[in-house]
Each structure stands twice: as structure tokens, then as C-alpha cells.
Amino acid sequence: MTILILGNGAREHALAWKLSQSPLVKALFVAPGNAGTAEVAKNLPLDPLQPASVVKAAQEQQVDLVFVGPEGPLEAGVVDALQAAGIAVIGPDRHRAQLESSKVFSKNFMLRNGLPTARAQQFSQAAAFGAFMESSRGKIVVKKSGLAAGKGVLETSDHAQALAFGLEILKTDHLLVEEFLTGWEISVFVLSDGLNYVVLPPTADFKKALENDEGPNTGGMGAICPVPTVTPELWQRVLAEAVEPTVRALNKEGLNYKGVIFIGLMITAEGPKILEYNTRFGDPETQVLMPLIESDFAKLLKAMAEGTVAEYHLEMSRNVALGVVVAAGGYPGAYREGASVTGLPTELPGRLQVFHASTTGLAGQVFTGGGRCFTVVSVEGSPQAAQEAALAGCAEVRFDGAWYRKDIGTKFLGRLT
Ligand code: AMP
Ligand code: GLY
């Protein structure tokens, strides 16, 4: 099989690293890729947001299957263009991608199907929103409907701040005001062939920039899989109350697709509630999932494309994977790119992996490209051991301004002791 992955993050590096180990994969391309993906695949210099360039490259390289990493190309209609050209692709078309790209669309889907989620009001007019805010009390969550790269959500008890944030959104978009849920979050990944599905074990990411989950939101500063506090009983509830009813509702409404359904859940005192759907893999969650998959991942993608997921047997390692993001100085604010990286730790097969994001250059001479530069992932028998090994790996990734959180996973360990 020849596979093309779209994207250039550590998520795409982890996917390419995993697929490169499959005997089914004869050729592997990543577009545009990074210095890490260049070690396991061939990078193609194209813009994944341009449907015509993606179709052309897939035809030129005789690609059998395209896998879309980030949400941008989904919203740009890359899947629609590939499907029109008769090229197999994993990911939703633009209409179905609204489950992620429109929070109004996705909230309406949840509510009309009776799925567990926060109560919400929708607004498209400043006057109605202003009147609602007059009577609203307590902590609320204001959300921009469209894609906002993590910057479209405000949780606050300060209603003047909420009003200002909301009015700004209404200049260009619709918004939701949600009840504030308390609990702890997990990310669940469902891989569907459009009818049947497999569920990967629970993961959690660490969204805040600072230790103890303080400071501003980021794309994610680390992740763990499985989540130590998800007991078998809780997992059964997640499957029965969120996963299974979501897939059933998608199939019933014709919103089903071949691809990843990412369910962001809040575990509340009343049980799991759906915060959001994404229509792709998470970053950094993918970096901790891929090293734990023991069955052939390329075979799973093929089964998703061909509609035979019901026959696929997923095998997962019983170990724990913990990933820590090494970020550029200044991130999530303005940060510097192009720092020269020294001391990438040499790979210890299967136990410590360094996944690159937006890096350029070649092995031995790598330069940073984005805000979150690397995810260092360790696989060990316990969360404690995995954390220790990942942090030891991070200490060896050296570039000017490099920093990382030293408490990824700790909040879950505390609950166990
Ligand atoms: P979303 O993009 O909708 O997942 O929101 C981003 C983040 O905001 C979530 O991961 C939560 O940490 C937080 N959040 C969103 N909705 C709520 C809610 N209703 N109650 C509490 N926190 C929320
Ligand atoms: N880690 C959350 C996301 O990928 O959206």
C-alpha cells in the first residue's frame, strides 16, 4: 500500500513512525512533513490546505490511501476533492467535518440525539446575547462556533468579560453559552469505517501551559495513555453513554464517515459529559497512542477504508505511554522559530521516542519551526516510570529557550495514592 499523510506536526510524525513499521506499507509520504517524518517517510513539499495540490500529488505518487492529520484540510474540503477524484481517504467531507468546525452544528446534533452534554444557548445577534447576559449568573463558558485553534473558549464568572468576549465573536460568527461543568477530562478516539468501529484506550492531554494546570491554554503540553483513574467500570459507562450512542446517532443521521471521531469528555459527578467532537486524531494524544498499538495499524486504516473494521482485532500493549512536549521559549505567546537543536536523544526502540513538530533540516542538523517543537514519549510498565523516563529524555533535547512541564501525569498519580 502507498499512503500519504497530510500534516507536519508530532501527531503526523507518530502516525508515520507507526505506519513505517507495517509490512503492508510499500511507500509512505507526508505532506509537508518535518525533519522527523523525513526519517521514516518521504516528505512532499505541498500545502495540505489546497485540495487541488493534494489530489495532484496523490495521483502522481499513485497513492492508495490518504490520511488527513489536522482539521484545516478537512474544513478546506480536501476529502471532498479526493473523493471526487476516486482516491481513498480517511477523514470526513466538509459537511461531516462540521462536527468539529461548527460548535453550533455539533451541539445541535448532541441535543437532538439526547447525548450527555452541557446545557447551552446559541446566539447570532448581539441584542439577544446582551439580554441573556443581563440575567445570567455564576460561572459560564462562552464558545466561538467556528475553528479557533484553542482560542475560542472562555470560562469565566466575570460577566463583563464574557460579554466583551462574546460581542467580539458575534462580529464574525455565532456563539454558544454553556453551563460550566466541573470534573476531569479525557480524550477518546473512535476509528470508524462508516458503520462499525474500534475504540482506542482512554487518553488525557494537559492543556495548560504551567504546572498544576495553571496559566494560559495551549495546544497540549503532554499526554498519557491509558489514564490511570479510568477504572473498568467508568470505561464501561463512557462506552455505553457516550461512544456507542454517538456512533449510533451519526449512522442514523447519515453523518457517518470513514475516519476518527475524537470525543472530548468531562467526567463529572453525574457521569461522562461530551464537551466536544473533533473529526481527527488529537495532538499530543496520538503520540502516546501509537507506541502502544501492537496490531498492524496500516491494516486498521485499510479496514476503515474498505469497511471491514468489524473483522479487525486491535491489540494494545499493557504498558503506559507518557509524552511531554518540549516547547519554544515564549509559547503559547510569541515565540522564536529556527533555533538549532542539539542533543536529540538517540532512540531506544519501543521505549523512548522523540516526535518532531514543524522542524526543518536533516538528522544531525535540525531547526525548530513551531511553538510545540517535540513530544518526548516513553513507554514503561507504570505511569511513574514512564514519567521519569520521558523527563530524562526531555532534558536531552536542547535548544535555545526550550522548556517543558515537569508534572505531566502527576495529577493522576496523586489520585491513586
Ligand atoms: P472545547 O473546544 O469545546 O473542547 O473547549 C475547550 C476546553 O474548554 C475544554 O477542553 C474544557 O477544558 C473547557 N470547557 C469547554 N466547555 C466546558 C464546559 N461546558 N464546562 C467546563 N469547561 C469547559
Ligand atoms: N489535544 C487536543 C486536540 O488535539 O485538539
Protein traits:
globular, alpha+beta, binds adenosine monophosphate, single chain, 417 residues, Dna Ligase, domain 1, binds glycine, Rossmann fold, 13 helices, five-stranded antiparallel beta sheet, Glycinamide Ribonucleotide Synthetase, Chain A, domain 4
Please describe what this structure looks like.
The chain starts with a strand and ends with a helix. A hairpin with a 2-residue loop joins strand 21 (360-362) and strand 22. With 417 residues, the chain is α+β, with helices and mostly antiparallel strands. The longest helix has 22 residues, at 232-253. Among the domains are: 2-91, 3-Layer(aba) Sandwich (Rossmann fold); 119-179, Dna Ligase, domain 1 (2-Layer Sandwich), CATH 3.30.1490; 320-417, Alpha-Beta Complex (Glycinamide Ribonucleotide Synthetase, Chain A, domain 4), CATH 3.90.600. 31% of the residues lie in helices and 27% in strands. The chain has helices at 10-19, 51-60, 71-75, 78-84, 94-101, 103-112, 126-135, 159-170, 232-253, 285-289, 297-306, 383-394, 410-416; strands at 2-7, 27-32, 42-43, 65-68, 89-90, 120-123, 140-144, 153-156, 175-179, 184-193, 197-199, 204-205, 208-210, 214-217, 222-225, 258-268, 271-278, 320-327, 340-341, 352-356, 360-362, 365-367, 372-380. Helix 2 packs across helix 4, helix 5 crosses helix 6 (103-112) and helix 7 (126-135) packs antiparallel against helix 8. The structure holds adenosine monophosphate (AMP) and glycine. Glycine (GLY) binds at residues 205, 220, 278, 282-283, 285.
